[in-house]
Every structure is written in structure tokens, then in C-alpha cells.
Amino acid sequence: MSKAQMMKKQQMTASAVKSGKMEMCYGVAHAGKNDCKAGPGTTCAGTSKVNYQGNAFKLVKAGTCTKIKTPKGHGSLTPIA
Residue 13, SS3? Predict the structure, then answer.
């Protein structure tokens, strides 16, 4: 992914969250399926290394994150250590 594409994805993520319709849900993404710029070791979409990585997020419908259950617990609105 080019730098321009990465920046566009990051802007799209920020816009989706700012709209209030979506929220960043940490610890629910499968390996390689996270959304953009999740945390250390990830630069953009698809860079998470393991399933349910605590610092990797997926955009989900607002109000649903903490209801999502994974083998490691529930989704979190903040990064999971």
C-alpha cells in the first residue's frame, strides 16, 4: 500500500468514528484483518499479526463493541495490553 493510500484509509477511519456511527473495537480483528493504524507494530489495514491482537481494531457499529465476544474475552473501546 502506498503512503497516499495509507493516509486516505486513516482519514476514512477517522471520519467514520467522528460521524458517531462507528467505533474502534480493539481485540476483535483476525490476523491481517484490522482496520487502519491500530497501534505499535501496525501501520494500516491488514497489518495485525495474530487473531484478537489487543492493539488492533476493527470498525464496528457504534454501541456494539463491548458486546462482541471472542475466545480472549470481549471487544474493548481502548487498546488491550
Answer: helix
